[in-house]
UniProtKB/TrEMBL annotation:
It comes from Novosphingobium arvoryzae. Belongs to the enoyl-CoA hydratase/isomerase family. Could possibly oxidize fatty acids using specific components. The keyword Nucleotide-binding does not apply. GO terms for molecular function: enoyl-CoA hydratase activity. It comes from the Bacteria. GO terms for biological process: fatty acid beta-oxidation. InterPro entries: ClpP/crotonase-like_dom_sf (IPR029045), Enoyl-CoA_hyd/isom_CS (IPR018376), Enoyl-CoA_hydra/iso (IPR001753), Enoyl-CoA_hydra_C (IPR014748). It catalyses: a (3S)-3-hydroxyacyl-CoA = a (2E)-enoyl-CoA + H2O; a 4-saturated-(3S)-3-hydroxyacyl-CoA = a (3E)-enoyl-CoA + H2O. The keyword Lyase applies. This is enoyl-CoA hydratase. CDD domains: crotonase-like. Keywords: Fatty acid metabolism, Lipid metabolism, Lyase. Its EC number is 4.2.1.17.
Amino acid sequence: MSFENILVEQRGAVTLITLNRPQALNALNSLVLEDLIAAFAAFEADPSQRCAVLTGAGEKAFAAGADIKEMADKPAADFYSQDFFSRWTSHLVKTTRKPWIAAVNGFALGGGCELAMMADFIIAADTARFGQPEIKLGVAPGMGGSQRLTRAVGKAKAMEMCLTGRMMGAEEAERSGLVARVVPLANLLDEALKTAAEIAAMPPLAAIANKEMVNAAFETTLEQGVLLERRIFQVLTATEDKAEGMAAFIEKRPGVWQGK
Ligand code: CAA
């Protein structure tokens, strides 16, 4: 599969997807979205692929936001009738059950920050800068930023960032819980791919289940979340990978996973 606006390659069991419009700081237009939807669908459908990494081409930006030039002259009725931005969440978040990591290599602004926050976690370069500057354009976040940023860093920082457009650097982002880890820019891709390979080597059903459980923490009450966790745990005990994992532990050898 080849694309015009993204690059996709398989590195063993890891799919590496690169936003590839560096001349526009990887701004996210409709063509990028369609490419990403197809690439994520292919990743999800391919049993040989167990984890994905999404990054941006060039050293300057992961993505500097939704494409302002595409939105500037678009009539309001079109945004509404097309339910503009809805397909990002429906395809990249809801239908992607396998884990994926955002490797943020520079600016992650507006839709870029929101796209990174759709990932299961973010590994950031020390040069990364996160922000929701939409207010400066007379609008507001539209791809989940007001919700996911607030859940990640809390009301005070999210509100300040949305109201002022202030960018948050990598160190502050790690301290605030927005990113899992910060690494030097030169090591970013290697670190993200290494982490993805580690996840890809885990029992695949358990990986999907762990992702589902952690995500449920943002959607439900503690009691319902703990119940869901217990039920998923119980379901996993019926898998061949559970039998193998526990036998391998007792026999002091690495497990070999079937995804069954
Ligand atoms: N959309 C379209 N083009 C963009 C873009 C965007 N979001 N961000 C950058 N570009 C383009 C610039 O227009 C420029 O193109 P030209 O060379 O053709 O003029 C090129 O990328 C390089 O950008 P700059 O010259 O501006 O680079 P800089 O180093 O001076 O500044 C920056 C970098 C601070 C990131 C600046 O580009 C910037 O502020 N970008 C816009 C950030 C923004 O407002 N993002 C939110 C968009 S709205 C949104 O995302 C809505 C939502 O919630 C989904």
